[in-house]
């Protein structure tokens, strides 16, 4: 049985993960961390530093502000950490990379298996299509999402950019009067209602358009991926891992 500490357990994703974990005989959430310490199915602590329950992995669906305490706890207890939070700064990403030299750390901008399959496809096709196609990314999320563009849009954009030998620039939205240049990728964010998550990559050429789209119908799709990551990270050696490792 893989023992999980769930950080952000009383958030929207935390509740979905808790419900789904009860159907998985390989996993058990043994403790939760949340500022809202309402009574739950397992002990809940206001801060991970106060958690005294032994576990195999920490699963984080919270905010970037929790990173320092998670990394410190993970190193002190020698526990694998799975980071499903987005919006990290460059400095925080460096801290994650440093921690992975000592403990196993998993980080992914999107826990959906489908998104990560698309990301893998983009690695194979982007360089070829770039010759004759302009590239744009549109992402849509609910009106409570804080960061824009989404971590997933940046994940897809960086995959495309890294696949192309030329210098590629990101342009967030379209403001002002000017023509687009070929060596840019436009990234557009839509926020409204209760949209769980939509990401569309458009390759627009002369006389034809290729569209690759992923729609998350419910938050459960991210919970499924997160729990698969917990299984994957169990007893891993130190290092930095992602959903690409899981689907491979």
Automatic annotation (TrEMBL):
Coiled-coil spans in chain: none
Q: Which reaction does it catalyse?
A: (S)-2,3,4,5-tetrahydrodipicolinate + NAD(+) + H2O = (2S,4S)-4-hydroxy-2,3,4,5-tetrahydrodipicolinate + NADH + H(+); (S)-2,3,4,5-tetrahydrodipicolinate + NADP(+) + H2O = (2S,4S)-4-hydroxy-2,3,4,5-tetrahydrodipicolinate + NADPH + H(+)
Q: What is its EC number?
A: 1.17.1.8
Q: Name one GO molecular function term.
A: 4-hydroxy-tetrahydrodipicolinate reductase
* Active site residues of this protein: 141 (proton donor/acceptor), 145 (proton donor)
Q: Which domain of life is it from?
A: Bacteria
User: Which positions in this protein are listed as binding NAD(+)?
Assistant: 8-13, 84-86, 108-111
Q: What Pfam families does the record tag this protein with?
A: DapB_C (PF05173), DapB_N (PF01113)
Q: In which pathway does it act?
A: Amino-acid biosynthesis; L-lysine biosynthesis via DAP pathway; (S)-tetrahydrodipicolinate from L-aspartate: step 4/4
> What are the Dihydrodipicolinate reductase C-terminal domain coordinates in residue numbering?
114-247
Start and end residues of each Dihydrodipicolinate reductase N-terminal domain = 2-111
Q: Which UniProt keywords apply?
A: Amino-acid biosynthesis, Cytoplasm, Diaminopimelate biosynthesis, Lysine biosynthesis, NAD, NADP, Oxidoreductase
Residues that, per the record, bind (S)-2,3,4,5-tetrahydrodipicolinate: 142, 151-152
**Compartment(s):** Cytoplasm
What the entry lists under Gene3D superfamilies is as follows: Dihydrodipicolinate Reductase, domain 2, NAD(P)-binding Rossmann-like Domain
Q: What is said about its interaction partners and assembly?
A: Homotetramer.
| Role noted for this protein | Catalyzes the conversion of 4-hydroxy-tetrahydrodipicolinate (HTPA) to tetrahydrodipicolinate.
Regarding protein family, the annotation reads:
Belongs to the DapB family.
Q: What is this protein called?
A: 4-hydroxy-tetrahydrodipicolinate reductase
State the organism's lineage.
Bacteria, Bacillati, Bacillota, Clostridia, Eubacteriales
Q: What is the primary gene name for this protein?
A: dapB
């Amino acid at each position: 049985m893989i023992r999980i500490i769930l950080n952000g357990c009383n958030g929207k994703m935390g509740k979905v993960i808790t419900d789904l974990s009860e159907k998985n005989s390989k996993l058990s959430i043994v403790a939760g961390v949340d500022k809202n310490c309402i009574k739950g199915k397992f002990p809940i602590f206001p801060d991970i530093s106060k958690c005294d329950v032994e576990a195999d992995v920490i699963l984080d669906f919270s905010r970037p502000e929790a990173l320092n305490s998670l990394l410190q706890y993970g190193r002190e207890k020698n526990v694998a950490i799975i980071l499903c939070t987005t919006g990290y700064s460059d400095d925080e990403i460096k801290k994650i990379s440093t921690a992975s030299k000592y403990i196993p750390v998993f980080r992914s901008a999107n826990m959906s298996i489908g998104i990560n399959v698309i990301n893998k496809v983009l690695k194979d096709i982007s360089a070829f299509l770039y010759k004759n196609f302009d590239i744009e990314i549109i992402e849509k999320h609910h009106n409570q999402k804080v960061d824009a563009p989404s971590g997933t849009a940046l994940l897809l954009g960086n995959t495309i950019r890294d696949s192309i030998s030329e210098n590629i620039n990101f342009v967030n939205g379209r403001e002002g009067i000017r023509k687009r240049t070929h060596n840019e990728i436009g990234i557009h964010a839509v926020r409204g209602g209760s949209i769980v998550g939509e990401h569309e990559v458009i390759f627009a050429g002369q006389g034809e358009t290729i569209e690759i789209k992923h729609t998350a119908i419910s938050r459960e799709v991210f919970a499924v991926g997160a729990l698969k990551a917990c299984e994957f990270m169990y007893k891993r050696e130190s290092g930095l891992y992602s959903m690409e490792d899981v689907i491979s």
